[in-house]
Backbone:
């Protein structure tokens, strides 16, 4: 009877806390969905820019082979190498195919011609798929050319007719740490600003000191700013330590402006702080705040491109990634740290952060005031 009474008491507690029950049931389902459906390491349909200086029928066949492989989407046609560089630096293109002007003449006269394939290797998983696909396609195309030349061509050949030369930019050794570690800086900032902010407010409410602060002469905006500034300083300190470890321990190059990186980080943290404030208005206990914070952070970790390339995800997951602010902040982080690009390339990722930060912070402050009136 005592055991039955204890079990019944726990069921009563669960009934009184439907939010905790919902989180316990929903989070595992979300994990199964993300791991089983959204995550795919076989990356295809990489956005590709082509700089064709030959404009020959043989080039058209080669590019058709690239497109038919399903690994390359020939989205852009460049007028010069500078445009190829600009599109890859900005992240619009992951692969660049450069056809030399003497491609057709060398293929017919010398029996061998080179094609340069530039790969954005800041993401080793994407780069590996592109390198393997381009190499295999070059060998397959060479065999096709040899068979067209005649039965005896294969035995007389000293070098393949099509020489695919791979150039890996930003991370030539394809080291995963150089890709993962800068992204972890964004994940740490998100975790710090959301969970600490949410728990700080809930802790005040649990202790009964938040109401005492509200009825004091301190203004509401002063109360909010007093809560935000220490968390911002902690987040910036954490970011500084993480960047130092990334550079001096893992050898991550910092090629861009740190001042620009710190400035744009404030835009990202404005939104995540807003999410933390909003969670604090929903949660009534610290465990609830931690669970809600985990629920906000978990999809961002796996769908933002931190660990797995967005290009390999199905379209619904890519649409969801497009509304996650960490997706854009990771592009800013890796663009500044690994590529050394400036603000002129980063505007497409800055606008979403500004909109999200303004909306999240404004709504959370309004909700915060309403819940305490």
Residues:
């Amino acid at each position: 009877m005592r055991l039955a009474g204890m079990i019944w008491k726990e069921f009563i507690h669960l009934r009184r806390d439907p939010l905790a029950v919902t989180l316990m049931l929903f989070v595992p389902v979300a994990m199964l969905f993300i791991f089983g459906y959204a995550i795919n390491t076989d990356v295809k349909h990489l956005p590709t820019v082509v700089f064709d200086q030959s404009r020959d029928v043989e080039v058209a066949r080669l590019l058709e082979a690239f497109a038919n492989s399903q690994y390359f989407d020939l989205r852009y046609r460049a007028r010069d190498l500078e445009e190829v560089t600009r599109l890859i630096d900005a992240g619009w293109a992951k692969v660049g195919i450069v056809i030399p002007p003497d491609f057709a003449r060398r293929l017919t006269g010398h029996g061998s011609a080179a094609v340069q394939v530039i790969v954005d290797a800041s993401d080793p998983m994407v780069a590996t798929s592109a390198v393997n696909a381009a190499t295999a396609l070059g060998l397959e195309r060479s065999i096709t050319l040899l068979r067209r030349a005649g039965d005896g061509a294969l035995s007389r050949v000293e070098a393949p007719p099509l020489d695919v030369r791979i150039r890996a930019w930003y991370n030539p050794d394809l080291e995963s740490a150089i890709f993962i570690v800068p992204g972890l800086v964004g994940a740490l900032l998100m975790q710090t600003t959301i969970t600490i902010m949410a728990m700080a407010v809930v802790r005040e409410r649990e202790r009964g000191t938040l109401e005492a602060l509200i009825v004091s002469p301190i203004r509401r905006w002063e109360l909010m700013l007093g809560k935000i500034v220490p968390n911002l300083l902690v987040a910036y300190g954490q970011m500084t330590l993480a960047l130092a470890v990334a550079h001096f321990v893992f050898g991550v190059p910092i090629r861009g402006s740190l001042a620009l990186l710190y400035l744009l980080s404030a835009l990202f943290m404005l939104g995540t702080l807003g999410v933390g404030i909003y969670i604090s208005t929903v949660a009534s206990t610290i465990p609830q705040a931690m669970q809600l914070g985990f629920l906000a952070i978990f999809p961002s970790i796996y769908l933002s491109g931190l660990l797995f390339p967005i290009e390999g995800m199905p379209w619904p997951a890519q649409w969801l990634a497009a509304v996650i602010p960490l997706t854009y902040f990771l592009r800013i982080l890796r663009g500044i740290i690994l590529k050394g690009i400036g603000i002129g390339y980063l505007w497409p990722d800055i606008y979403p952060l500004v909109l999200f930060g303004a909306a999240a912070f404004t709504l959370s402050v309004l909700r915060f005031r309403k819940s305490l009136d």
